[in-house]
């Protein structure tokens, strides 16, 4: 399927490139004509506005020649007629500006696609900076390349005893509306994964989209056979963090470019998992939850508690917890153990919890559910007056 989509995309791109120059020239001609019309409208609007201002000042000076020409063409001589004509021209100017913006955006998008690599990849860089690839590989091997040990503590076992359930028996499906939502969030020209297929082709080739949806359903039922190893791989690009001077292994941010079909699969998995455990999330877990405005919720709560404490003259304490390499250091064994206790069948995650993957925020929230439970049961929260 991937090979077929890649071939179709290449063929379409080749045809478009052959005829693109002619279309681009026509688009630029449209922009020039629209800008000429806009300049004329601006001149007319300015002339009419000046004429109305002259009448408001009740000056005896004669009207300008520019206004007299407009009045002869339009028949607008009375003040009411001039006002109506001015409003009409302003509406036409607004439409003209929108048309110019639309055509300029279309020409810019075509130009960017024609140039190939994103502009950020073509920016001049200091070629004297050496990238210590082997050091970076060893640095990250200790974080994501080595399995993290995990042993359920007595607190975790107690949490599992209270929250654990039997495996979810009901069939969880993804509706057509949910599929539309998944595909609508695919960025069409984002950097590709190892398969080289941009999201645009998965979004706009109907047969490819249908086959991909069927494959995703099959992959959740039989991942061992339906999901090949290459699908879960990504191309890693090292982005300097901007620190001046020599670059150490920790001064580069690894960005993994994943296959779009893999992202669609994990987005579907995230929706299925969310349906099963949505009602079981701790109330304290607000960030990274679908349908919840985490920042707005936190801001309102913070303002309410602070104002209540000032009004009642009460003491407040705040604890900030910052998890170093939070996504990268989550133990796979911990995720599997918690999902099992929540009533899920084992979920094999072979490529880690990657930032930017649709499934990652949900898995991270699941991994810290016992922490939220421990905080709730061991720490007394602030009580407002009402």
TrEMBL record:
Residues 86-113 form a coiled coil. SUPFAM superfamilies: DNA/RNA polymerases. Residues 220-386 form the Reverse transcriptase domain. The keyword Iron-sulfur does not apply. Keywords: Coiled coil. InterPro entries: DNA/RNA_pol_sf, RT_dom. It comes from the Eukaryota. This is Reverse transcriptase domain-containing protein. It comes from Heligmosomoides polygyrus (Parasitic roundworm).
């Amino acid at each position: 399927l991937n090979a077929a989509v890649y071939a179709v995309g290449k063929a379409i791109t080749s045809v478009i490139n052959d005829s693109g120059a002619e279309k681009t020239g026509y688009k630029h001609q449209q922009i020039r004509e629209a800008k000429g019309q806009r300049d004329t409208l601006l001149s007319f609007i300015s002339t009419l506005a000046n004429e109305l201002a002259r009448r408001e000042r009740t000056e005896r000076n004669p009207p300008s020649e520019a206004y007299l020409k407009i009045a002869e063409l339009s028949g607008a001589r009375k003040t009411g007629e001039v006002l109506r004509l001015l409003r009409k021209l302003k509406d036409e100017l607004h439409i003209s500006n929108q048309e110019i913006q639309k055509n300029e955006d279309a020409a810019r998008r075509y130009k960017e696609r024609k140039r190939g690599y994103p502009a950020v990849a073509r920016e001049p860089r200091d070629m004297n900076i050496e990238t210590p690839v082997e050091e970076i590989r060893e640095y990250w091997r200790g974080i994501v390349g080595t399995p993290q040990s995990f042993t359920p503590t007595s607190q975790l076992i107690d949490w599992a005893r209270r929250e654990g359930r039997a495996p979810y028996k009901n069939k969880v499906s993804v509706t057509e509306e949910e599929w539309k939502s998944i595909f609508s969030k695919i960025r069409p020209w984002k950097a590709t994964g190892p398969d080289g297929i941009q999201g645009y082709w998965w979004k706009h080739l109907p047969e490819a989209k249908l086959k991909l949806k069927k494959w995703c359903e099959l992959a959740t039922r039989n991942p061992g056979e339906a999901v090949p190893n290459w699908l879960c791989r990504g191309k890693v690009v090292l982005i300097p963090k901007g620190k001046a001077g020599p670059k150490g292994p920790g001064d580069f941010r690894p960005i993994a470019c994943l296959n779009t079909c893999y992202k669609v699969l994990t987005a579907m998995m995230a929706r299925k998992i969310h349906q099963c455990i949505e009602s079981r999330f701790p109330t304290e877990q607000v960030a990274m939850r679908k349908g919840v405005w985490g920042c707005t919720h936190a801001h309102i709560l913070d303002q309410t508690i602070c104002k209540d404490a000032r009004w009642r003259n009460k003491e407040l304490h705040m604890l900030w917890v910052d998890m170093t390499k939070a996504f990268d250091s989550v133990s796979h064994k911990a995720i599997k153990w918690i999902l099992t206790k929540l009533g899920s069948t084992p979920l094999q995650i072979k490529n880690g919890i990657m930032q930017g993957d649709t499934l990652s925020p949900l898995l991270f929230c699941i991994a810290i559910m016992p922490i939220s439970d421990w905080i709730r049961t061991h720490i007394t929260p602030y009580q407002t007056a009402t």
